Amino acid sequence: MTDQEKAVAEQESRLVFGRFDETTAYAIGTQLVEAAKAAEAPVVIDIRTPDRTLFHAALPGAAPANDLWARRKSNVVFHFHKSSFAVGLENGRKGRTIGPDIGLDLALYADHGGSFPVRVKGVGVVAAITVSGLASAEDHAMIVAVLEKALA
């Protein structure tokens, strides 16, 4: 495991919610919107459970494809219960792909950074917070920065 993979795993184990509901999703979503606006980031922000969208925003400059990327990255979170960035880093280190090597449909899954698991203490992964529109590491970092403040 690389140092970067260890750092991401540490983030995932540390950034855990006591509870998570629609109100929490809205608060985190609006904080992400403010962070994206401050950075003039052309992103889509999506917070969803496996079967329901809790928050969605498209900022100026975001492309329709960002919605598709957000969905594909959040599918990775729900499949692996890890951030899409962590899965991508591991696959890169192992020289494998999420498609042919693991057997997932590339039209439905993307192991690029930017989707983070919403883990509730004593429950597990209940949702995914996704940012799409920047480089993988930047999408991931935006989520982590907001969660670090929100969960402090």
Commentary on this structure:
The chain has 152 residues and is of the alpha+beta class. The chain has one domain: Haem-degrading domain (Beta-Lactamase). It contains five helices and four strands; from the N terminus they run ααββααββα. The protein has a four-stranded antiparallel beta sheet. Strand 1 and strand 2 form a beta hairpin. Helix 1 runs antiparallel to helix 4 and helix 2 packs across helix 5. It is globular and about 40 Å long. The model has no long low-confidence stretch (mean pLDDT 97).
Structural class: alpha+beta
CATH overall fold name: Beta-Lactamase
Radius of gyration: 14 Å
What fraction strand? 15-25%
Q: Helix content range of the residues, please?
A: 40-55%
Distance between the termini: 27 Å
Mean pLDDT: 97
Main beta sheet: 4 strands, antiparallel
CATH architectural category: 2-Layer Sandwich
Quick one: CATH superfamily?
Answer: Haem-degrading domain
Q: What's the overall geometry?
A: globular
Number of strands: 4
CATH class: Alpha Beta
Pfam family, one: HbpS-like
Which properties best describe this structure?
152 residues, alpha+beta, Beta-Lactamase, four-stranded antiparallel sheet
What's the short story on this structure?
The chain has 152 residues and is of the alpha+beta class.
Walk me through the topology.
Blueprint: H1 3-14, H2 22-38, E1 44-49, E2 52-58, H3 64-80, H4 84-94, E3 115-120, E4 124-132, H5 136-150
Antiparallel strand pairs: 1-2, 1-4, 3-4
Helix pairs in contact: 1-4, 2-5
